[in-house]
Amino acid sequence: MLRLLNLELQKLLLNRASKVLIFISFILPFTVLILSSIKINFFGLFTLELGELGIFNFPVIWHITTFFASQFKFFFAIVVVSMIGNEYSNKTIKQNLIDGLSKKEFILSKFYTIVFFSAIATILIGLATFAIGMYYSSYTEASIIFRETNFLLAYFVKLVGFFSLCLFLAMLVKRSAFALGGLFVLFIVEWIGFGIIAWQTSSELAEKVQRFFPLKSMYNLIKQPFQRVIMTKFPEKSEMFYDYAVHPTDIFIVIIWTAIFVFFSYKLLERRDL
């Protein structure tokens, strides 16, 4: 595993564009640190500081930071599809196979890289969240601080699943731009499928089925936290209640999709004449 990971890291770090995108994909999520220190002056009448609103209290901060950080996953997605696009355009994929790398090892090297960078991103977000929370949170009990750290697991699974989808699309079309466009097409197809099911049956059944769609299942791992924040400010508004928790079933669904994407990426390469 380490040999394959080291091989892929060497390729990425020797490519200037990849290094820049990797740097951006790690740095941008940390803009949450900037958000926590923003102070808005309303015409000298009063100053609003986001960190003082309670949104960075434990345990809700784990939800907020992981959701916010996951919005920047597209930058590393470009790296993932570029890994495959460059292999085909530069003919290095054929050279790697000639040099003794099996097709299975080739796909595994890409997957190990995905897991590696997803793990680093999760650790960094976890440390940043803990630091912000310890500074702003009014709760210091360990049971409260670590209550919802399962959002970190959801964040990691979400990244691995999404990047594995990008790997599959890149293997399918062999071009970076088309692979990224495939994400948009899949998004549209999922909503068309949802509309057809809702039209033919009911919206309740359509929502249950939609839960198993690739992109929707990844979104369900970390739902939007804004409604939750509002709920804490207006607890009497029961109509705003929604299920924001991380569920093992949703994690399992994304893991299954991840395995499917990696497996079919290998099958595409196995059957393709290079």
UniProtKB/TrEMBL annotation:
The chain crosses the membrane at residues 20-40, 60-84, 111-132, 152-170, 177-199, 251-269. Pfam families: ABC2_membrane_2. GO terms for molecular function: ABC-type transporter activity. The keyword Membrane applies. One of its GO terms (cellular component) is plasma membrane. Keywords: Membrane, Transmembrane, Transmembrane helix. The keyword Transmembrane applies. This is ABC transporter, permease protein, ABC-2 family. It comes from Formosa agariphila (strain DSM 15362 / KCTC 12365 / LMG 23005 / KMM 3901 / M-2Alg 35-1).
